[in-house]
Automatic annotation (TrEMBL):
It holds the Pfam family Adaptin_N. Belongs to the adaptor complexes large subunit family. Keywords: Cytoplasmic vesicle, Golgi apparatus, Membrane, Protein transport, Transport. This is AP-1 complex subunit gamma. It is a peripheral membrane protein. Residues 740-855 form the GAE domain. InterPro entries: Adaptor_Complx_Large_Subunit, AP1_complex_gsu, ARM-like, ARM-type_fold, Clathrin/coatomer_adapt-like_N, Clathrin_a/b/g-adaptin_app_Ig, Clathrin_app_Ig-like_sf, GAE_dom. PROSITE patterns: GAE (PS50180). It is found in: Cytoplasmic vesicle membrane; Endomembrane system; Golgi apparatus. GO terms for biological process: intracellular protein transport; vesicle-mediated transport. It comes from Mugilogobius chulae.
């Protein structure tokens, strides 16, 4: 019987046209009763991947593209349902392309497994690629691949083995790694370099998933570094690095390979041109970078290993070409290695000079990397980094915000007693012109630097006033009381200060912190302003009415906040005992007795009562404030202006009269460190006894740092000076802070909070160590209400200055700094107990820690 589709066309004549319907119906269409073959029901061949890509690229809108994708996905699903083995590979390839475009392709997972089980290499290649893209540990389907991968790892063709290794190294789960680690270890010992490099990378993934299998690969690593093939060498170094990072035992075991690694690196540097490995004139920079990273791990905290690699690091640093980015990458890794190992001082200076050259590079990324690296090393190599101070300051003018921020942080880290004037001049100029996002951090940094290194009280006051004038709206909350305290204690500067603030008030009243300080000072020292007693600069002629006009203007100004109005009203009230215009002042005060601001109304009512009922007490109540002692959240401390030019007077030691406390209060106070052998120096007002109880009193519970506790005394000891620096020699403490080469240390690292200590030594009195804490937060949420507290044994004396903030920013975007001064006259081993309190994600956190591993240079 003839085939139902094979017919001979009749001769072409006019009758064909007339009989066309009959011919089509009875000759071309198949007869219903005749048998149908399989290929009759077969769907048309799917389009190729290239055609699909071309079609999708012609889509003009996203909706049109989605329509094309949905239509093709429907066709692919139909093909999968028909179990079409011929075009399964093509359909999965198209599905992977759609997956790359972001469209769902999960319905192709099982088809990938079918391709993997195929005997064709082309099918396996697409199947394994699909498995790596579409499968992971979260789908149980991936466990069905284990047997296929095991068979392919033992396949006779190296390319099939390579596919299996790549897939296992990409998405193998811990169960698959345990089952197939033996096959990977066998391939790691093979002589085939193509398989060895893939097996080494697969072994890295196995170790990450199942660290206890690490020892299985140890015998196979013996001969890896003797391989000539650079691909095998590269992957071998990656494997060794992973093993060293995960196991201290492996790190000690592989330190004997340092000479071999040095020899490989030297051959790479000294070898001639090799087209196979050359990148911009440098032989295999990728391998060089990997070797440098491994050397950094092996040489850290090990003298012998560091000594063995000093020479090769110097060769790499001096012989690497810097005109191309490839050379800069190698030099950067070299610098990191030099800084992490115990390298020679000359080599460290060379590394910092390389970073200094990076600062002159046109590439912004290289400049940013250099600034970040210098910021990490400035504490340990302060003098070497100081040589590049001018270049760092120039980076403050960069247009890139990231570079400006890093340059600002590094500039503050470079400030010391010798360069405080020059650096502050540059930083204040930066504060004038920088974006608002920088002003808060810059102002805080200037405040801290001025408090720590101010050469004179007048310079200190001028600097802080300049900050308040420039960025008063961005300063932290405690800037106003801090400046008021500084002005109050600078008795000889009262006339100069009040005149400067009055001038600033006439120029601008928009900076509220500046207005508040000016109002307070005018209220306290308005008589000095009117009398014109300023000796530091030419006095101005001001009348009482002019001063009152300015303060009344603050009360009615729309720019004034309620707090500022409170300052202004209080200042006007104080002037009633300093000026003769008492009636005018009474009238102003009485007006605000009906203010809608409750705080302002209460002040006015109370002041009116002073005028009417207690006028005889008013002069005594409104007399000038005495010299104030600064109280921080970490305990009372007194600010002593030091590190200065010749000061008119030195704060005299103040011994408060003995105050007998109840027995339980004395015991609680002495229990601060677990006994009376570990006191904390507290500065208290003579009329106010130390408070008992509270967080500080339980800082160390009933532990003792010295191991022996004595019975508590019945009264609070007051024989020592109220402040640890009182009674010392009168030369200023920070006249010249020298970088003592004391290495920094990490005192605390837990729950995302990291506390680092950096050290300085005071030249006039080497018994005083200045410790700066740097608190950083690596979590995603900021830590608020942060309080750092510390205590030391009895033979030491300790003082805590104010912290830079009580909020530790998230994701290491900033640090909170605080200065600790420790007097150690007996040069004993320094020990400290710290208490950390903060709020994280709405929950209060409190933790204690003991710090005993201070560097010997910090206390010897």
């Amino acid at each position: 019987m003839s085939h139902p589709y094979v017919y001979t066309m009749p001769p072409f004549d006019g009758a064909v046209h007339l009989k066309s319907r009959y011919w089509i119906r009875h000759h071309w269409l198949p007869r219903v009763n005749e048998p149908q073959h399989d290929f009759v029901q077969r769907m048309p061949a799917p389009i190729r991947l290239r055609e699909l890509i071309r079609t999708i690229r012609t889509a003009r809108t996203q909706a049109e593209e989605r329509e094309m994708i949905q239509k093709e996905c429907a066709a692919i699903r139909s093909s999968f349902r028909e179990e079409d083995n011929t075009y399964r590979c093509r359909n999965v390839a198209k599905l992977l392309y759609m997956h790359m475009l972001g469209y769902p392709a999960h319905f192709g997972q099982l088809e990938c497994l079918k391709l993997i089980a195929s005997q064709k290499f082309t099918d396996k290649r697409i199947g394994y690629l699909g498995a790596m893209l579409l499968l992971d540990e979260r789908q149980d389907v991936h466990l069905l691949m284990t047997n296929c991968i095991k068979n392919d790892l033992n396949h006779s063709t190296q390319y099939v083995q390579g596919l299996a290794l790549c897939t296992l190294g990409c998405m193998g789960s811990s169960e698959m790694c345990r089952d197939l680690a033996g096959e990977v270890e066998k391939l790691l010992k093979t002589s085939n370099s193509y398989l060895r490099k893939k097996a080494a990378l697969c072994a890295v993934h196995v170790i990450r998933k199942v660290p206890e299998l690490m020892e299985m690969f140890l015998p196979a690593t013996k001969n890896l570094l003797s391989e000539k093939n650079h691909g095998v060498l590269h992957t071998s170094v990656v494997l060794l690095t992973e093993m060293c990072e995960r196991s201290p035992d492996m790190l000690a075991h592989f330190r004997k390979l340092v000479p071999q690694l040095v020899r490989i690196l030297k051959n790479l540097i000294m070898s001639g041109y090799s087209p196979e490995h050359d990148v911009s004139g440098i032989s295999d920079p990728f391998l060089q970078v990997r070797i440098l990273r491994l050397l950094r791990i092996l040489g850290k905290s090990d003298d012998d290993s560091s000594e063995a690699m000093n020479d090769i690091l110097a060769q790499v640093a001096t012989n690497t070409e810097t005109s191309k980015n490839v050379g800069n990458a190698i030099l950067y890794e070299t610098v990191l290695t030099i800084m992490d190992i115990k390298s020679e001082s000359g080599l460290r200076v060379l590394a910092i000079n390389i970073l200094g050259r990076f600062l002159l590079n046109n590439d912004k990324n290289i400049r940013y990397v250099a600034l970040t690296s210098l910021l990490k090393t400035v504490q340990t190599d302060h003098n070497a980094v100081q040589r590049h101070r001018s270049t760092i300051v120039d980076c403050l003018k960069d247009l890139d915000v990231s570079i400006k921020r890093r340059a600002m942080e590094l500039s503050f880290a470079l400030v010391n007693g010798n360069n405080i004037r020059g650096m502050m001049k540059e930083l204040l100029y930066f504060l004038d012109s920088c974006d608002p996002e920088f002003k808060a951090d810059c102002a805080s940094g200037v405040f801290l630097a001025a408090e720590k290194y101010a050469p004179s009280k007048r310079w200190h006051i001028d600097t802080i006033m300049r900050v308040l004038t420039t960025a008063g709206s961005y300063v932290r909350d405690d800037s106003v009381p801090n400046l008021i305290q500084l002005i109050t204690n600078s008795v000889e500067m009262h006339a100069y200060t009040v005149q400067r603030l009055y001038k600033a008030l006439l120029d601008d009243i928009s900076q509220q912190p500046l207005v508040q300080v000016a109002s307070w000072c005018i209220g306290e020292y308005g008589d000095l302003l009117v009398s014109g007693q300023c000796e530091e600069e030419e006095p101005i002629q001001v009348t009482e009415d002019e001063v009152l006009d300015v303060l009344e203007g603050l009360l009615v100004s729309n720019l004034s906040t309620p707090v500022t109005r409170g300052y202004a009203l209080t200042a006007i009230m104080k002037l009633s005992t300093r000026f003769s215009s008492v009636n005018r002042i009474k009238k102003v005060v009485s007006i605000y007795g009906s203010s809608i601001d409750v705080e302002l109304q209460q002040r006015a009512v109370e002041y009116n009562a002073l005028f009417k009922k207690y006028d005889h007490m008013r002069p005594a109540l409104l007399e000038r404030m005495p010299i104030m002692e600064k109280t921080s959240t970490n305990g009372p401390t007194e600010i002593v202006q030091t590190n200065g030019e010749t000061e008119p007077s030195v704060v005299e030691p103040k011994h408060p009269p003995p105050v007998t406390q109840p027995g339980n209060q004395a015991n609680d106070l002495l229990d601060l460190l677990g006994g009376n052998d570990v006191p904390v120096i507290q500065t208290t007002l003579p009329t106010k006894p130390p408070s008992a109880g509270g967080e500080l009193l339980d800082l160390l519970g009933d532990l003792s740092l010295s191991g022996n506790s004595a019975p508590p005394a019945p009264t609070v000891p007051v024989s020592q000076p109220a402040f640890l620096l009182d009674g010392l020699s009168s030369p200023p403490l920070f006249n010249d802070i020298a970088a003592a080469g004391i290495p920094p240390m990490t005192a605390y690292n837990k729950n995302g909070l990291k506390i680092d200590f950096t050290f300085e030594r005071a030249n006039p009195n080497p018994n005083i160590a200045v410790i700066t804490i740097h608190a950083s937060n690596s979590t995603e949420a900021e830590m608020t209400d942060f309080v750092f507290q510390a205590a030391v044994p009895k033979t030491f004396q300790l003082q805590l200055l104010s912290p830079s903030s009580n909020v530790v920013p998230a994701l290491n975007q900033g640090t909170v700094t605080q200065v600790i001064r420790v007097l150690n006259p007996q040069k004993q081993h320094l020990r400290m107990r710290i208490k950390l309190t903060y709020t994280h994600k709405g929950s209060p956190v409190q933790d204690l820690a003991e710090v005993n591993n201070f560097p010997p240079q910090s206390w010897q």
